[in-house]
Every structure is written in structure tokens, then in C-alpha cells.
Write a structure and sequence with these properties.
This protein is an all-alpha fold and about 475 residues long. The chain has one domain. It has a two-stranded antiparallel ribbon. Strand 1 and strand 2 form a beta hairpin. Helix 9 runs antiparallel to helix 19.
Length: about 475
Amino acid sequence: MLYVNKRLNFIDLFKLFVIIQPVLDILTYFSLTSFQMTITVGIITRVLFMGISILYIFFWNRNPLKKYIVIYLILLFTVLGAGLILNFFNKPVFYLFSELQFYLKVLYFPILFCTILLLFSSNVENNKTKQMLLSSVSFAMLLTAISMFISIVTGTANSTYDFVKSGYTGWFFAGNEISAIVAITFPLVLINSIKKTKQIGDFIFWIPTLLIASCALLIGTKVSYFAVLLTILISLIFSIIVFLYSRIKKLKSIKSIFYILIFNILLSIFYFGITPLSPSYNNIAGDYVTINETVKENNQNTADKSQKSTHTNKKSNQKAETDFETKRDSILNSKILNILLSSRDIYFDSIYNDFKNASFIHKLVGLGYAGFYEGEPKLIEMDFFDIFFSFGILGFTLILLPLLVVFWKVIKTLFTHFFTFFRIENILLLFSLGLGLGVAFLAGHVLFAPAVSIYLTITMALLFHFHTTINSGSSFE
């Protein structure tokens, strides 16, 4: 009975923790900008909750998965701890606070994923847990959107960019993080809206979806804009297919399916209608012009080099070698690549050289935070590369093991329940995960940003219990 009470209390605590995420982010923003605090309310609260989560994993539940998760976490702590000790004695410069802070941020992702997995129990409770997670995310994002609009109206919003481009992050500190949050959570918010739609009056449940779509346009980044755009298109296409299928089969649920289709159409009209008036549109249009000009410049430079090499090199093999080097240089030194990756390729080259020249044991357990820095430490800001170089082959494998497990569960479900696999809720969940991993790879600030990774872990946990969704016969119900 004691275990049951602790489990229920922890579920309530977790629900509250998800809902207050935007509040923690806002408090963090004002702590950094107004008081220049290095240790913020957000950091303290999230570290404390991670500690409580560890207690829940080890002592407060009897889930059948517990023994596997405990073994996994012990291995993870051992490998990362060994890397930390090794780098403490071997790195040219070792900033203890920065290193520990980075380790805690990275651990947040696997610990939260394991915690959410253990919230699930029986099939009946699973459905309630799934709905709790979706509703909590929707409420959190509603708070995010409201705070964004208030900050803009009051003229207190933070700008996404310091110059040239436009956009707002509201009372949130980092544009990359709020963009990633919107990208990952929008499919989840949309799922919640779809699930609650039974009649015309249920349009009220689509208000958070509309507001978050508006935020994607106001932030001004390519990540948030295209993530929401593609999610809306996917939802609309599947809604049309489901509606046509329900008419052919004359399903009893056709009325609610019809309303879902109508609301998806209205959402699409709204999003495309206000796009030309948004910061996102202006920024993307500006990037398009810049890329076009760069392409013309590169083509002209390549043509000039080719013409010069033709006059100076008579032998065909020499010409081929020169052409190859010209093409390689035009790709690696391309301003287009610099625009798309925001100079991350430069930082990659530095840390890659550190890793290449490091000892075998360092290759296994990693170089620690930002590699072998001597000046100011700087991450690549491409999560998978940062994790690989910082924690080595062993650490990288263990940290990303939850992702591999989720992929295995999804693939298994695809083969065992092929015809019931392709539902709009299931596809949106997969798309949420795909967006999160895509942002993590290209823009970073996902896997080791606690404010973002919590939402990715929720998506992963829902996908892990994908098979129970299908076996129950109705998605998340």
C-alpha cells in the first residue's frame, strides 16, 4: 500500500513538474538577465527533481522494468564517473563547475526517460498516464504561449537575434531552446486536441494548438517554423484519409472525425494565412536571398578556378585532381554550409582533432566538457557530436541506449501490427521524435538541455508503450 501511495504521489508531482516548466524557464531568464545569477531557480528545481526521480527509480516502485533500469543506470553512472575522474587528472584545463554542470545536464535525459517509463503499470493505468502526459504538456505550452504574447505586448520580450534577423523569444533566454521545445511539443499538443474533439464545441481544445503555431511564427527560426508547418500538413493529410475511410466504411465515429478534419483545415488556413506577416517569413526570405547570392558567387569562383587550371595544367590527371580539390574546397568552405550550420563546423574541427589525438582510454570514456580546451570552452552545439566527443564510445552508447530501445519497440510494433500502426496519433508521435532528433543533430540544445529534453523523453516513453496503445484498440483512450 505504501508503494502505491508513493507512486500516485509521484505521478501528481511529475504532472505538476511538467506544467511548471515554462515558469521555471521564465524565472531562469529573469535570474540571468536581471540578477546575473549563475545558479538559477530553474537549475535548482530540476536538479532536486532529478534527485527525487532517482529515489523513485530505486525505491518507490515495483514496475517489472525496474531491475533493467537500475542495472542500466549503474552502468551509466560508472562509465561517466570514470570519464570525469580521468579528465580531472588529465585535461590541460579543468573547470570543475562547468564539467559537473554539463554532466548533470546530460544525465537528465536518460534519468527522466527511465522515470517516465516506470510511471506506467497496467493497461488501464497506462491510458490514464498517457492522457496525463499529453494534457500536462498542452497546459505547459499554453502557459508558454500566453507568456510570449504578454511579453511582446508589454514590450519586454527578448529578441531571438541580436541583429539583422527578427523574432521574439518572450521571457525565455535561448532562441534555440524555445524553438526546439515548440518543434517537439507541437505534435503532442495537436494529438491532445484531436483526442478531445467529439463535437463542434470542442474547438476550445484547439486553442493551445493555435497559440503554439503562432509562437512558431513569432520566434523567427527555421526550426520552429518548418516543424509546425510539416506537422500541420501531415495532420491534414491523415485527417483527409481517415475521413474518406470512415465514409466508405460508414463508421459511427464519422461525426467526430469530420470535426477533426474541419479543425485541421482551419488550422492550416490560419497558419499559412499569417505566415507572410511573421518574423519567420522575413528571416527565411532573407536567408533564401543570401544563399542565392552565395551560390552565384561560388559558381563564378569555381568557373574561374577551372578555367585557370585548364590553362596551367596540361595533363588530364592533374586537371582531375585540381577539379576535385576545387569542388571539395567549395563545399567545405561554402558560405551556405556556414549559414546552415551557424559556424558549428568550425568548432567540430577543433574538438575532432582533440579526440583523434587522444589516448585510447579517452576515446572510450570521452574528453569531458568541450574537449581539451585551453581558453574558453566551446561546445559544437550539435548534440550527438558533443555527446560522442565528451563521453566517448562507451558513454555515447549508454546515453543513447534509451533511443535505441524505443526504435526497437517501434520497429517491432510496425511488423507485428502493421495495419493498425498508421494512425494519426501514432504518426504525430513519431514525427515529434523525428523533429527532436533532427534539431538535436543540426541545432543542438535538446539532449542536454533539461528544459527541452523533458519533452523528448515524454514522446519517447509514449512510443515505448506504443504496443499497448495498439493492443487496446484505440489510441490513447
